[in-house]
Amino acid sequence: MYEGIRSPAIHSPKTLSEFATAAHRYPQALVWAGGTYLMSRKDYYPSEIKDGIIDLGELDELKGITRNDRFVEIGSMVTASQLLFAGKLVLPEILQITLQSLASQIVRKQITIGGSLCIPDVRLGLSTTLAVLDATAEIKQYQDGKVSTHWTPISKLYNKDGKLLLGPQKTLLTRIRIGLEYGDFQRFIVVEDPIRNTNECVIVAFQATRAQNTLSKVQFCITFPNKAYHISKDIESKLSGQTLPIHPERVNSLSYELVTELRKMHGMISDLQLERARRIFESFLHELNSESLSS
Amino acid sequence: MKIECTIDGKALSLSVNSNKPLSLILIEDVGNRSIISHCKGKACGNCIVLLNDEAVLSCLIPAFRLRDATVKTFESYQKTRLYRDIQRAYKATGNTPCPNCYASKTLIIESILQEATNNRGNKTLGRANVSRHISNEDESALDKQAIVGELSLNTCQCMDMAEMLQIVEIALTYRRRKRVRGN
Fold it and tell me: Which of B41, B55, B59 lies closest to A106 in CB terms?
């Protein structure tokens, strides 16, 4: 049917050094992890793919999950389904809920952790939750046959609009590291389907530590999939050190501060999304209050 | 690109573009009639097939991942004994999906049945593994929620979710009975 289009060559490296060679030889090649995002693009097929496709499916080095006393390391080619199953005793609850929210089980078997984090223009639940958990990613950069490796916090991988900030040179996210010390209050909410209803979707992840009715280490991230990726250090620091219960008027003022901040920094967010974000944020604080009063 | 694979029990050698989606291969190259939509990965859920016995959205599988794979579409699945459990459940409830989504919804139900009967201990489908402190009642409720999540992969509105859940429950009973008899 599409006779004018050449079939792209498939390069299947089995080791990272083979990937380095392929990346050097075919700089324009498309790096393929699970393929769920690439195949859902309107222009995916039929289209010309220069330099072919580098398929990461046979890179066993990227498929491991390791754990020690301080952190868990997850290879970027581990699928959401594998991680959910393997990590049920290891991973924080918020991450498990996030993984379950990504898609149905049938699609989760195909979504890879690295692929989900490296979508160029849409942010989903995983990048939101991993930012809250202070996770870091190992990035390998391939330039002129040389490889450099560095660890970057997940929150620094994206700009305020949620666009991926990895440079123009060939880069590969090989694994992520999640510390095992996390807060005792964790919440994750996604409203609307981020794939089917991107323009109305809001994703919020929140965690905090409670010690003797005082909040500390508050971290939250609000994502509007194709519009904004927002972490408010200001409100986080205002919340850290607050004594529970927080006065309802203070909850109200903080939530409106958040809305003002979101409006100022991201012009694209709709009123519906703003109201949803505000109410979710408020509900977390009310929940903290009620738990502190009932304990 | 030449790809050797087995589709509906037939060993085929296909000459297709390496990045062509499986849904298009089935429609254009194989002439399969059970796949009726190509939503370009927008997850309409109408193109489900069994790839190496696991349910997948065929619009999200590229040709190069089909090397030596076994693909079973609804055309061959409906000839198996497994299909009878779901068919009987449709009859028992008096509800049947519309012709547009019949194949996909049936294969989604099949994947739920497989998950529920094979991995009962693992509970990868349910949320029961999330909280260690939830009661048994909560567990079953949450499992139901996960099943609803699976079923909503198909966006066709021809059936109510409660009806679908009833079909799954009845089909699961038939499948378990069959397993007990088999053992």
Answer: B55
